[in-house]
């Protein structure tokens, strides 16, 4: 019985993340290559030694954070606008990357990356959101 149970557990496959990837592609307006997506999925486990940071990255990648847009769909009367810039839709892409109020923030982050790595790094949404 134990060997049968073990064999059954071994045959269970991980759920596909294709729908999650497609939703990110749709919001970002770009194609995410297999290599980039696989790297982002792998990074969830190695982003930080801090479990809390890893959980945050897991929730970002899997789109488990509740954006203002999603909250407004779930709860009638909830304001769907971005609290920083007052634009709609305040989806995950907007909240993490494309909000105009984040432009200087990401510019500073990528300027710091460029300095640290001694290599020019242009701000890119995949790097900003997935690491």
Taking pLDDT < 50 over at least 5 consecutive residues as the criterion, the unreliable ranges are: none
Main sheet, how many strands, which sense, barrel?
Answer: none
What's the assembly state of these chains? single chain
Large-scale geometry: globular
Number of helices: 8
Indicate the mean pLDDT. 92
Helix residue percentage:
55-70%
* Structure class: mainly alpha
Strand content is: under 5%
Radius of gyration: 18 Å
What gap, in angstroms, lies between the N and C termini? 43 Å
Q: How many β-strand stretches?
A: 0
SSE order:
HHHHHHHH
What descriptive keywords fit this protein?
131 residues, mainly alpha, 8 helices, 59% helix, 0% strand, globular, Reverse transcriptase zinc-binding domain-containing protein
């Amino acid at each position: 019985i134990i060997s049968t149970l073990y064999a059954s557990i071994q045959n269970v496959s991980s759920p596909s993340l294709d729908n999650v990837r497609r939703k990110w592609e749709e919001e970002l307006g770009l194609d995410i290559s297999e290599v980039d997506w696989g790297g982002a999925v792998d990074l969830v486990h190695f982003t930080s030694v801090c479990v809390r940071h890893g959980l945050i990255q897991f929730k970002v990648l899997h789109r488990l954070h509740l954006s203002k847009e999603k909250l407004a769909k779930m709860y009638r009367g909830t304001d769907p606008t971005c609290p920083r810039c007052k634009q709609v839709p305040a989806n995950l892409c907007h909240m993490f990357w494309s909000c105009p109020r984040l432009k200087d923030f990401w510019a500073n982050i990528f300027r710091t990356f460029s300095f640290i790595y001694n290599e020019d790094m242009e701000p890119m949404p995949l790097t900003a959101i997935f690491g």
